[in-house]
What does this fold into?
Amino acid sequence: MADHQEASLTLPSDPASVSAARKHVVRMLTEWGLTADTEFADSIRLIVSELATNAVQHTFGQSPTFAVDLRLEQEELLYLGVTDSHPRWPRRLPAAVQQDNGRGMVIIRCLAKECGGRLTVTPTADGGKTVWIALPWSIPVQG
It folds into this structure.
């Protein structure tokens, strides 16, 4: 097997793309050996849903597309990234703020931490950003 496997998909910044992003990630991870009905798979589905939703809702129409990238390195570390071209980076809201939304990054950070992973944000060349989740991978890779 190669030192890494990669998959990428670019989607329009449209609410319907959230489901497409989730299905793409699940399909790729299943090909790489992840059983779909595990707690780890459920966490990944929720993470990608939250990241894709953020890319659609919080770019205010300034990012016509977003990309979902997966990279599995040496069968040890899974990177899941969602990239958009909007310059505003995600912000953590204070716990005292009362509103109906805006808790996605808190959910993502908690899920990543529960899975033994971490969240980072990196700039892109076009002034946007990629929100990366790095998770330990302990599943033997297929194919």
In short: The first strand starts at residue 4 and ends at 12. The CA atoms of residues 10 and 67 lie 4 Å apart.
